[in-house]
Amino acid sequence: EKRDSYDAMAKYLAGVNAGVVFLSLGPRIEDALPFLWRGFKVSPAYTFRLSLEQPEEAVWEGYAGRVRGDVNKARKDGLVADVGQDYGVLGEMQKSALARNGKRADVVAIKEILAFLGNPGRSFTVTVSRNGSALASVLIAHHRSDAYYLMGGHEAGDSRQRGAGTLALHAAILHSREIGLKVFDFEGSSISSIEEFFRGFGGRLEHGFQIARGWLPLEMALKLRW
Q1: % of the chain residues with pLDDT over 70
Q2: Rounded (10°) CA dihedral 15, 17, 21, 26
Q3: Do the beta carbons of residue 47 and residue 190 sit within 8 Å?
Q4: Which are the contacts of 120, defined by CB distance < 8 A and separation ≥ 6?
Q5: Average pLDDT over residues 34-57
Q6: DSSP assignment, residue 101?
Q7: Is residue 129 a contact partner of residue 107, using CB atoms and an 8 Å limit?
Q8: Is the distance from CB of 139 to CB of 152 less than 8 angstroms?
Q9: Region 109-138 average pLDDT
Q10: 179 Ramachandran zone, left/alpha/beta (phi>0; psi -120 to 50)
Q11: Are 97 and 136 in contact (CB under 8 A)?
């Protein structure tokens, strides 16, 4: 039954009239062979998934010491986390974060993502600020029982601000739990420093697959651009 569903999905995506098709399959999809057979490149992807079906104290105790230390320091320094729908601030911080890392921000794509997710039924933001100035922001999407970290950004600042991103994710985890979600998915990363950061929140390492298929000249052009 599952194989038939995956085969139907692979058949549909193979017929999509697009230059590039790229999709991350969730950890629940264990069989990527139908995609491989239809010409997709299949590669492993890893994520951390944190159970929210436990007391808040247990979630906190599951954090690495450095994460708890960063959250406590951020609070001591007067940083405040606010849950809301502040997509404009998030978009600007995402562009700034990409620029600092030498990446070119796709402004149109960012706007389209935020426009699609920009309602309380699909997502929420957490913005961390001090004295009214925003320092970090994250976007969390949710579907059924799962929350997903999609994007985030922070302002470059002094050492007192380094805990802003940590506090933002901590607040996002607690809010996800408060609204009845059962799992917080960090959406993984193959970048060592980001993986280490996510790992500090105590989630369980799980793997899934990423599939990709595209017109070769276009794939090469995209690689040159990014």
Answers
A1: 88
A2: -50
A3: no
A4: 85
A5: 94
A6: T
A7: no
A8: yes
A9: 84
A10: alpha
A11: no
